[in-house]
Specification:
Order of helices and strands: HHHHHHHHH
Number of helices: 9
Strand content: under 5%
Mean pLDDT: 79
Helix content: 55-70%
Distance between the termini: 91 Å
C-alpha cells in the first residue's frame, strides 16, 4: 500500500497506472469471491445412506422379529426412519418371505385352487379382487407353472 501511495505522488503517468492496477485488483478479487462461493460446499460428516450399513445386528434382528409378528414393512420403515424398499431389501437378504399385502394367505390358497381348477388369471383375479398380473406373480412366487 505504501508503494501505491508513493507512486500516486510521482505524477499523472504513475497515477493512471496505479488507477488501472487498483481496478484490476478489485476485478480480480470480485471474481475470486464469486468462484470461491461456487467452489465451497457444505461440509458434513460422511454417513452412509444405505440402511444396511447404518443399522446394527440387534436392530436387524428386531426388524425381522417384528415383521414375523405381523408388523408391515411400511410400519417398520416409519419406525426406523427408512424407506419401505430398504426394509424389504433387508428382509429379503435375511431370507424372510415377503408377505403379499394385497393377497391374504386365505386368498392365496383360493387363487391357487381356482387356477388349478382351470380358471383364467383374469377370472381368479376378479374373484379375489386383484389384477391378473398379481395372480400371475403369486403363482410364480409359489412355483406353480403356467398353463399353455
Amino acid at each position: 500500500m505504501e508503494v501505491a501511495i508513493d507512486l500516486s505522488n510521482r505524477g499523472r503517468h504513475y497515477e493512471n497506472r496505479l488507477h488501472r492496477l487498483v481496478e484490476a485488483m478489485q476485478t480480480y478479487l470480485r471474481q475470486e469471491e464469486r468462484s470461491h462461493a461456487t467452489r465451497t460446499r457444505k461440509v458434513t460428516v460422511s454417513t452412509s445412506r444405505r440402511l444396511s450399513t447404518r443399522i446394527t445386528d440387534d436392530q436387524l434382528s428386531s426388524i425381522v422379529s417384528k415383521y414375523r409378528e405381523g408388523a408391515s414393512s411400511a410400519d417398520l420403515a416409519a419406525y426406523y426412519g427408512a424407506s419401505k424398499t430398504s426394509i424389504v431389501e433387508l428382509l429379503r437378504r435375511s431370507n424372510i418371505d415377503i408377505r403379499d399385502r394385497r393377497i391374504t394367505p386365505e386368498n392365496q390358497e383360493l387363487a391357487i385352487n381356482l387356477y388349478a381348477e382351470g380358471k383364467s388369471l383374469a377370472a381368479v383375479g376378479k374373484r379375489i379382487k386383484v389384477s391378473p398380473s398379481a395372480v400371475r406373480n403369486l403363482l410364480v412366487r409359489k412355483g406353480i407353472p403356467r398353463r399353455s
